Amino acid sequence: MDCYTLVFGSIFTLSFLYIIAKLSSKSSEKLPPGPTPWPIIGNLHLLGAKSHASLANLAKRYGPITSLKLGQTTAVVISSSSIAKQVVQKQDLAFSSRFILDALQAQNHYQFSVAWLPVCPQCTLFSKDMDDPFSDSKVDELKDAVSGIVDVAGKINLVDYFPILEKIDPQRIRYRANIHLGKLFKLFGDLINERLEEKKRNHSEKNDILEVFLNHSAENPEEINQNHLESMLLDLFIGGIDTTTGTLEWAMAEILGQPEIVKKAQAELAEVVGKGKPIEEADVSRLRYLQFIMKETLRTHPPAPFLIPRRVDQDVELYDYVIPKGSIILVNAWAIGRDSSFWQEDSLLFKPERFRSLELDVQGKDFALIPFGAGRRICPGFPLALKLVPVMLGSMLNSFNWKLDADIEPKDLNMEEKFGAIVTKAHPLRAIPSPL
Ligand code: HEM
């Protein structure tokens, strides 16, 4: 190599590196504030075992739009209701894609699922009446496999933050997801085939969600095929089981921790429905105090504290910042529900009465309370959940008296959370019913 080539080559390389460095520092100058990343891992070490709480603490220091580096991925955390409104409503389109976890790429589930597809025509199906859950004997098997997939999807997976590790799958998360999803798709495939045969044999129609899906698929075969059907059933189970049962468990735990709330709820049930009588869905709208309990439970324990993580497909301007393409967006509904500037200084207390004077609902219009998200990606199962959980809770309270197991004092009940795709009680509630 002659001297000229060496000199010009070096000048060219140095200039190129200088421009790249300038460009990247410019874009990072426009990033929202956040902690300084460490080499390679970035800020992964700051997530902690309860990431929703760790990120809420970071927001106290860096503000309601915080940026972090999770391995190679930029994450932006939204922790105030006004900015959540900007993101999930006003600039909804820019923030509507999903960050697809590596675990859910197993079995190509994400290609057909409502939850992971871009906003899609199939989503509207979920807003149809879905009041009849399956009453099939396979439900227990389904529940186990669903819990398995919720569990692996809730683990912090290095592959999500270091895509270079994709082929290695160091924590075997995709491997395990593959097994659970495989079982689920087999079960759903059988369920669909059995139903199709039954329909052919008896020329009959059942009044449930599978029938709605099958009819829609028959009318729009190009929009919904068997893969879509199986993935939609999976969405229904993943989205619907642990969220609703978890909410019921938190509600029971919170109110058994404050027996005066149980008394008020039982008094309302006795007056509106009649002591010991079964609760119908139609009763729910007249059970105001029960609805306050439901809202307060979802405020303090949103099952999906970051909603379902979203992603930006392009650089997006948000206020004075630029969120770089590919960033994961975490809307911290848990932190927003505890924000004392809105919820007052007793924001950490469980107090259903606060809703007597607060006309807020949970359906994506009031951004201080967004357990179901908002905008075009709002949970399509919320109408079902808002009937199902109060009916279950009301039935438990209107049929039995309850006491904590092992004579635990209500004030001593352990309310620790366990973080995952769905935040559950770290110590399952143990309560004993007795006749009313
Ligand atoms: C207490 C009960 C529930 C809670 C708190 C809840 C919460 C959520 C949240 C936070 C999201 C993401 C919204 C966003 O990104 O803005 C979501 C999405 C979703 N939920 Fe629910 N959910 C519940 C029950 C259900 C039920 C019963 C079903 C179905 C039967 C369901 C099906 C879905 C589906 C399919 C999505 C994905 C929607 C999309 O990405 O377009 N959920 N849910």
Automatic annotation (TrEMBL):
Its main location: membrane. SUPFAM superfamilies: Cytochrome P450. It holds the Pfam family p450. It is found in: Membrane. GO terms for cellular component: membrane. Gene3D superfamilies: Cytochrome P450. Keywords: Heme, Iron, Membrane, Metal-binding, Monooxygenase, Oxidoreductase, Transmembrane, Transmembrane helix. GO terms for molecular function: heme binding; iron ion binding; monooxygenase activity; oxidoreductase activity, acting on paired donors, with incorporation or reduction of molecular oxygen. Its cofactor is heme. Belongs to the cytochrome P450 family. This is Geraniol 8-hydroxylase. It comes from Capsicum baccatum. The lineage of its organism: Eukaryota, Viridiplantae, Streptophyta, Embryophyta, Tracheophyta.
